[in-house]
Amino acid sequence: MELLKKIINPGKTAVLVIDIQKDYCSPEGKITEVRKFDMSPIEKIIGPLKNFLEKAREANVPIIFTRMIENTADMEENAKIKRVADGNPLELCVPGTDGFEYYKIRPEKGDFEIIKKSYDAFSNEELEKILKKIRAENIILCGVYTSVCVDTTLRTAYTKGYNVIVPKDLVAMPKERWDQHEATLKIWDIIFAHLADSREIISVWNGRRGI
């Protein structure tokens, strides 16, 4: 807990919320429609994530939302080649479609937002500009999908020198991919990130306000 207190100091910390979008999260989104995936694990984090973001705002912790564009027209050539090789027909989170929109959670006044065309949120240079502007040294990562966009972004954050904290109850992916979720958490815990429960982080923030 003492280490956690040091690396979630509100004055040096940002919350990064990855890709809470309808195509990725909704039972009526395109992934559910085509893959028939069970989104209940993602649905389970929505309420706690809303509460966590409210507490972050109360503690004056900056919040950065990302949204992904995952369609062939906007992909780098290597991503297109991989998609063709895998026979993956899905065009997801296309701007102008309902699937691109946020799912049950969206930025509020004072929050930041970036749009990305790669799984790694740092592929949009605006992310690091924001982090430098707010003098963030620590990043709390939340969102979906654990082994894809969250993991790719997390590893870059670690490599760039940020302390990375993951509330285990605020990251998820579909039930059919839960084995990947659990394996990814284990790897993070060994090397790349500090794992916690969102309630532990909130407790630390509440304690700081009481000082």
Describe this structure in words.
With 211 residues, this protein is an alpha/beta fold. The protein has a single domain, classed as Isochorismatase-like (Rossmann fold). Helices cover 45% and strands 16% of the residues. The protein has helices spanning 2-7, 22-25, 30-35, 40-58, 77-86, 126-133, 146-159, 178-192, 198-209, and strands at 13-18, 63-68, 112-116, 138-144, 163-167, 171-172, 194-196. Strands 1, 2, 3, 4, 5, 6 and 7 form a seven-stranded parallel β-sheet that branches. Strand 2 (63-68), helix 5 (77-86) and strand 3 form a beta-alpha-beta unit. Helix 4 packs parallel to helix 9 and helix 7 packs parallel to helix 8 (178-192). The two termini are 17 Å apart. The model has no long low-confidence stretch (mean pLDDT 94).
Protein topology:
Blueprint: H1 2-7, E1 13-18, H2 22-25, H3 30-35, H4 40-58, E2 63-68, H5 77-86, E3 112-116, H6 126-133, E4 138-144, H7 146-159, E5 163-167, E6 171-172, H8 178-192, E7 194-196, H9 198-209
Parallel strand pairs: 1-2, 1-4, 2-3, 4-5, 4-6, 5-7
